[in-house]
C-alpha cells in the first residue's frame, strides 16, 4: 500500500506510491519512451484493464467506460492508519483512482467530440464523483485530464482520471480559506465578485455564454491558462442541472477547440476545482459539512507550453511571459 | 516593465513578464527548438551579454562571470508602485535578475568542476547575494540552477541565476511560518530536529560529512529529491565561514556526481533556500529583520525525471513513485 507522508516544513502531503514502483535505473534520462502499439483503452482490449466500474452504451458497444487505474496511486481498501513517525506524520494510502475513457476512438480528443457526447461524459463524471462522495473517508475528489505526453499522459487514448484523497489537498484548502475569509467580511462569494469584475472589464474574457464565462485569470501562472466558471453562484458541480450541463459542455468544447486551433493542439492539463466532499466544520465539532458559500466550482485549463524551472520550484511563484489580456484577445479572435 | 499580480484565491503572486514577450504563435507545440551554435556565455563572446557585474580572474581571462539577465523577469529601476485593481492587487516588477556563469567551459557541468573552483563559485554567490541584500526593496533573493532543457535551461552553458523579489514568496513564507511556530512551542529549530532524526534513522541519509548532511526528505515530492543542509544551526548562508564553504562545496560536488552517475546526467533544478533579506517583525512595528531562529538554510536538488500532471496542479500534492529510502540507498551505493 502507498504511504501518505506529511512535510512539516511545507505543511504538504505527498503520496509515496511504491506500487507504481520504478527502479532507479528506469529513470535514466536518455532512455527513450517506447511507443506502444497496444492500447488497453481501445474497444476489443477490455480484458487489459481491471474490471469495469461502469460504462455508457453507444451504437456499437460502449461509448464511455470507467475502470480502476491499473497502477493506482491510492487504494480503496483499509483504514487511514494515521500515525506519527518521530517528528513526521504519515497515513495509509487509501483513496480511489479511476480512469474515465472519453470515447472508443483512440484519435478523437475531447475538443472534437460532439456536444451531446461531451454531455454524456460530464454525466459520467457526476455519477462517479457522487458515488465516491458516499465514502466519508474521502475528503476530496479530483477530476482531471492529462492531454499529451508533456502534460503527463502515459497513454495516448483520450481519458480523464478521478482521484479520491483522504485529506483535503493544500491547494484546495487555500481556496476554501480565501473564500471563507472573504465571505466572513463581505457576505459575498469571492469568485462571484471576480467574475463580475472580469465581465465588466472584458479584456480577459474569452467567451461569455448565457450561464458560463470563460476567461484568462488576472494572475495567470501560465500562458493561455483559462478558467471556465458558472456565472451564477454554485459551490458544487454535482448540483448542475441538465440544461446547465449542456451549456457547460458547449463552453468546454469551444474553449478546447480555441486552444487546439490557436496553439496547434498543445499538451494541457485540466482540473475540476469542486467543493470538497467533507470538511471539518469549525463551529460544529464532530460535524462534517461543506458550506454553500465556501466555494464556487470552476474548471482550470493549463496548456503546457512553458517549463517549470528552479525559480518556480524555489519560490512557488511563477513567471508568465504572456499577459492574460493578450492571451484572451488571441483566443477570442480564433474562429472555431 | 513587468507586473507582479496577486491571485486572491490562491494568495499567490505571479510575474507577468511581458518584456520576455513571446507571441502566441511562438507557443505552437510542434515547433522544434533551434539548436544555437553561438553561445553568449563562452569566452570571446562577452559582447553578447549586458555589461558585466563582476568576474573572477582565472589563468586565461575570467573563470566566473556575473552578468544581468538579457531578458530579465524583474528590473532594478523604479519603485514598488503597489496598487489595487478592483478586487485584485498588483505592483511593479522591480527586482534583479542576474546570471552567474559557472566557468568558461561550455561542456563542464558543475559536478565536474574542482572543489576549489566550486568554492570560488560559492563565494561569488555570497558576494552577489550580500550586495543585493543592501537594497531593502528586495525581500527575498533566490539563487537557483536549471540544468538541462527539461529543467528549463534555455542556454546550455552551465550557469546559475539569482532573482531578487520585492515580496517574500509563498513557499518561503510557509517555511518561515512553520519554523516560527515550532520554535514558539519548543524553542528548538524545526530543521535541526529533522536533521537529528534523519541522522538517527539513517535510512534516508546519502552522505554524512563533518559539517553537512545530504539526505532524501521523508516526504520527497520527486524521485531522488535531495537536500544538503548544515548539521549545525545557521539561518543565513552568508554566515558560512571559509572552512564551512569548503565542506559545503565537497558535499555539493559529491551529491551532483552521484546524481549524474546514478541517473545518467539527469536534468535537474537546485534552489538555495536561504533566510529572507528583510521581513516584517511582528513585535517591533516599523522594524525589518530576520530572526536567527526563524530559519535553517539548505540546498534542495530536484532531478526532473517525472512529469507534473493534472493531479499535482489540481491539488498541490504529489505522487512520488520512488520511496526516499530506496533513492537514498541507491545514491549511497554509487561510487564516485
Plain-language structure description:
- 2 copies of one chain form a homodimer.
- Helix content of chain A is 25%, strand content 24%.
- The first copy, chain A, is an alpha+beta fold and 336 residues long.
- Chain A has a single domain, classed as HIT-like (HIT family, subunit A).
- The first copy, chain A, has a 10-stranded antiparallel beta sheet with strand order 3-4-7-9-8-13-16-12-11-10, with helices on both faces. In chain A, strands 2-1-6-5 form a 4-stranded antiparallel beta sheet, with no helix packed on it. In chain A, strands 14-15 form a two-stranded antiparallel ribbon.
- In chain A, a hairpin with a 2-residue loop joins strand 5 (83-85) and strand 6.
- In chain A, helix 1 crosses helix 4.
- Chain A starts with a strand and ends with a helix.
- The model of chain A has no long low-confidence stretch (mean pLDDT 89).
- At the A-B interface, strand 1, strand 2, strand 8, strand 9 and helix 2 of A face strand 1, strand 2, strand 8, strand 9 and helix 2 of B.
- Strand 17 (318-320) of chain A pairs parallel with strand 2 of chain B.
Short description:
The structure is a homodimer of 336-residue chains. Chain A is α+β, with helices and mostly antiparallel strands and 336 residues long. Chain A contains six helices and 17 strands.
Amino acid at each position: 500500500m502507498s504511504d501518505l507522508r506529511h512535510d512539516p516544513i511545507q505543511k504538504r502531503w505527498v503520496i509515496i506510491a511504491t506500487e507504481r514502483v520504478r527502479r532507479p535505473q528506469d529513470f535514466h534520462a536518455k532512455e527513450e519512451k517506447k511507443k506502444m502499439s497496444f492500447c488497453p483503452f481501445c474497444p476489443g482490449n477490455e480484458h487489459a484493464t481491471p474490471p469495469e466500474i461502469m460504462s455508457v452504451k453507444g451504437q456499437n458497444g460502449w461509448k464511455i467506460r470507467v475502470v480502476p487505474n491499473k497502477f493506482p496511486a491510492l487504494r480503496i481498501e483499509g483504514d487511514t492508519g494515521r500515525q506519527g513517525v518521530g517528528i513526521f506524520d504519515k497515513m495509509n494510502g487509501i483513496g480511489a483512482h479511476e480512469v474515465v475513457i472519453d470515447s472508443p476512438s483512440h484519435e478523437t480528443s475531447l475538443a472534437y467530440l460532439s456536444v451531446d457526447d461531451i454531455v454524456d461524459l460530464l454525466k459520467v463524471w457526476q455519477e462517479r464523483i457522487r458515488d465516491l462522495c458516499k465514502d466519508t473517508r474521502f475528503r476530496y475528489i479530483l477530476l482531471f485530464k492529462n492531454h499529451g505526453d508533456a502534460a503527463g499522459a502515459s497513454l495516448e487514448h483520450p481519458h480523464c482520471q478521478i482521484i479520491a484523497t483522504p485529506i483535503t489537498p493544500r491547494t484546495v484548502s487555500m481556496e476554501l480559506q480565501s473564500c471563507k475569509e472573504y465571505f466572513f467580511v463581505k457576505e459575498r462569494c469571492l469568485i462571484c465578485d471576480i467574475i463580475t469584475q472580469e465581465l465588466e472589464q472584458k479584456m480577459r474574457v474569452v467567451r461569455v455564454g448565457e450561464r458560463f464565462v470563460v476567461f484568462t485569470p488576472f494572475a495567470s501562472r501560465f500562458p493561455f491558462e483559462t478558467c471556465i466558471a458558472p456565472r451564477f453562484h454554485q459551490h458544487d458541480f454535482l448540483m448542475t442541472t441538465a440544461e446547465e450541463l449542456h451549456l457547460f459542455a458547449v463552453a468546454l468544447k469551444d474553449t478546447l477547440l480555441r486552444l487546439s486551433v490557436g496553439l496547434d493542439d498543445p499538451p494541457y492539463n485540466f482540473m475540476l476545482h469542486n467543493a470538497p466532499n467533507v470538511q471539518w466544520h469549525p463551529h460544529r465539532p464532530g460535524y462534517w459539512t461543506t458550506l454553500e458559500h465556501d466555494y464556487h466550482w470552476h474548471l482550470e485549463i493549463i496548456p503546457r507550453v512553458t517549463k517549470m524551472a528552479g525559480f518556480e520550484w524555489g519560490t512557488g511563484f511563477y513567471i508568465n511571459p504572456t499577459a492574460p489580456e493578450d492571451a484572451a484577445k488571441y483566443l477570442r479572435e480564433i474562429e472555431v
